[in-house]
Design brief:
Layout: H1 8-47, H2 50-64, H3 66-76, H4 91-119, H5 127-155, H6 158-185, H7 191-218, H8 224-235, E1 242-251, E2 254-263, H9 269-286, E3 290-299
Parallel strand pairs: 2-3
Antiparallel strand pairs: 1-2
Helix pairs in contact: 1-2, 1-3, 1-5, 2-4, 2-5, 2-6, 2-7, 3-4, 4-7, 5-6, 6-7, 8-9
Domain Cation efflux protein cytoplasmic: 224-299
Protein name: Cation diffusion facilitator family transporter
Region (Disordered): 295-315
């Protein structure tokens, strides 16, 4: 049964509004982190701190994640076509791949700089400026993190929420630069590159989490609790006697579902259709970010008739 459409216009408007909010969050984040990165890069240039360099590279990579996500949000607003019948929401998953690659590249660059400085120690100058830049990095990341998480939760974008949590982690790595500056101030020349290596490890931890989330999205994984909630909702729908398969997938920052419900074998086509529509309607109201559900009504097999016999060989 095709999804009912009495809320179609509202869904399209909501989708466009959520994408617009996501785009706004991305550009604000790009501006904030971009300014932070420029400030830190200037301090790196005249201080020679590789710990701050690692943090700067990480912040630059985090700022640049706005570009692929922005492209994905823009594509997600396009209407489905006969080739892309589900629309372009999965572009957000491809953006996730680009983001993971960018984070990986920043970790390699930060590690290389730290190892080189360990092999060839140098004094770090202008420690007060390094400390100030570290605090600026923390403040910039925390502000961006709060904004991304708030907007991500509002529009249901897992990618934007994950990006916000990533920015929050970056803020704490910025604070680690303070430890390097303190060690250098006490005369420990290796403090700065060692902190740079620790920041690289923190970046790798973020990389692992981001790669796991992107992998799960590419593999159509959803939170099992959503399936449990959907099954409970379907069973509570009047006329539903049982359930078959219940499947969900993310397309961008919206969910789609495919469900099989069992109805009375004596029900007419109109009655079965009504039950399926009621089930879909209940799901859309019960599951956050669910845009549409395809509900298939199966006759109750307890009468001994296999209503799927023609498909047995194909299954």
């Amino acid at each position: 049964m095709r999804p009912h459409s009495h809320e179609a216009a509202d869904k399209v408007d909501a989708a466009m509004e959520s994408s617009a909010e996501g785009m706004r969050a991305l550009w604000v984040s790009l501006a904030g982190l971009g300014a932070t990165t420029v400030i830190q890069a200037l301090v790196v240039a005249f201080s020679g701190s590789v710990a701050l360099l690692g943090d700067t590279l990480h912040n630059a990579a985090d700022a640049l994640t706005a570009v692929p996500l922005g492209v994905a949000f823009w594509l997600g607003r396009r209407s489905p076509t006969r080739r892309y019948t589900y629309g372009y929401g999965r572009a957000e998953d491809l953006a996730g791949v680009v983001i993971v690659t960018t984070i990986a590249a920043s970790s390699v660059a930060a590690a290389y700089a730290a190892v080189q400085r360990l092999a060839h120690p140098q004094d770090v100058s202008n420690l007060w400026a390094v400390a100030a830049a570290a605090l600026a990095g923390f403040a910039g990341n925390e502000l961006v993190a709060r904004y991304r998480i708030r907007v991500g939760r509002k529009i249901g974008s897992a990618a934007l929420i994950a990006d916000g949590l990533h920015a929050r982690t970056d803020g704490f790595t910025s604070l680690a630069v303070l430890a390097g500056a303190a060690g250098a101030a006490l005369g420990w020349r290796q403090a700065d590159p060692i902190v740079g290596l620790l920041i690289t490890i923190a970046i790798l931890s973020v990389l692992r989490q981001a790669a796991r989330e992107v992998y799960r999205r590419l593999m159509d994984a959803v939170d099992p609790a959503l399936i449990d909630h959907a099954e409970t909702t379907l069973r509570a729908t009047p006329g539903v006697l049982g359930l078959g398969q219940v499947r969900m997938r993310w397309i961008g920052h919206h969910l789609r579902a495919e469900c099989d419900v069992i109805v009375d074998a004596g029900a007419t086509a109109v009655q079965a259709h009504t039950i399926a529509v009621d089930a879909e309607h209940a799901l859309i109201h019960a599951i956050p970010r669910l845009r549409a559900a395809t509900v298939h009504a199966d006759p109750d097999p307890r009468g001994g008739t296999d209503h799927h016999a023609p498909l047995t060989a194909h299954r």
